[in-house]
Amino acid sequence: MRAALPASSLRALRSSNRATYLSSFCRPASSRNLHQSVRIPAITTSQARHRPTLEPGYQKGPSFSLRNRTIYIQTQSTPNPSALKFLPNHPVLPESFPSTFLEYTSPRSTLAAPHPSPLAAKLLDVDGVSSVFYGPDFITITKAEDVNWAHIKPEVFSLITEAITSGEPLVNTVDKGTSTEGQEGVGEDSLAANDDDDEVVAMIKELLETRIRPAIQEDGGDIEFRGFEDGMVLLKLRGACRTCDSSTVTLKNGIESMLMHYIEEVKGVNQVLDEEEEIAMKEFAKFEEKLRQQKGPDAAPSTVGKGSLDFVE
Predict the structure, then answer these.
(1) Position 259 pLDDT exceeds 70
(2) 138 CB-near residues (< 8 Å, 6+ apart)
(3) Are 74-166 and 191-296 in the same CATH fold?
(4) Would you kindly state where each structural domain of the chain is located, as residue ranges?
(5) Which residues does residue 77 pair with via DSSP β-bridges, in sequence order?
(6) Predicted local confidence at residue 3, as pLDDT
(7) Which of 84, 111, 163, 165 could form a cystine bridge with 119, CB 3.0-4.6 A?
């Protein structure tokens, strides 16, 4: 006759059997079907995969040293084939910067007040680079259309890496009270809440800030709110989106549709163009009109016309 087990032993055995059952049930099917004789080697960490360690006494700050830390710079394509997004795994704009972006469109603007940038100056000095856009944690480089990325990408990598490892700030503040031509985003964030905003404008800003800006930043750009007049929301695209061929589609099919859906007072969206953009758009319209006259009345309609977001009176 088999001796009875103590109650404590029975509880331990049942607990062990239950744990074994649950463990086998929660495993993936491939693990449950393995033969018992198969030995799975233990997974060991490789020294090469360890994250870099910081020296004792390291303190985070605007001028901390990264000389002993490996810099990982990733690139991300954008809807604009002439713009490429670089993610250096490091803050780009200063923590107290008033706006969410800073854009340099000329070499002179990188050296002048209020926010000169030695890195932007070097990047714009690269043959083929036309503008440099700083986001909170990314840099968007826009090139000329006739330049190949293979020719300028290695130099851009090298300059960004050198600037970050030096420990120097990427953006300096010289005089907050002045601005310079070719330096955009130096003022207060246009989507920031303002006590003077009425209810409709406040709702427009909230939608732009929470639903639209993250998507545009993901594409290497940003957005500015320029006003709300007669039911029309006035916006300005920046960075990769500023020179993108699909910017009109983004505004009409994306932003305009969302704003009109949630806010009944919104009747449409217009893109605000800078002076040089207006001149370029007028010249393009004249060029297409000339082509249409040469091809005859059956020519395809221009993408720039009255009623279009790109039309300029």
Answers:
(1) yes
(2) 76, 85, 86, 87, 88, 92, 217, 220
(3) no
(4) 74-166, 191-296
(5) 84
(6) 52
(7) 163
At 215, the amino acid letter reads A
**Amino acid (1-letter code) at residue 226:** R
HSE-CB at 189 with a 13 A cutoff on CA atoms is 18
pTM for this structure?
0.66
Categorize the per-residue pLDDT at 309 as very low, low, confident or very high, splitting at 50, 70 and 90: very low
What would the pLDDT profile of 60-102 be if each residue is shown by its tens digit?
Answer: 433 434 445 567 899 999 999 999 999 998 999 998 888 999 9
What pLDDT, on the 0 to 100 scale, is given for residue 177?
A: 52
Fold of 191-296: GMP Synthetase; Chain A, domain 3 (3.30.300)
pLDDT in tens, 216-253: 999 999 999 999 999 999 999 899 888 777 777 777 77
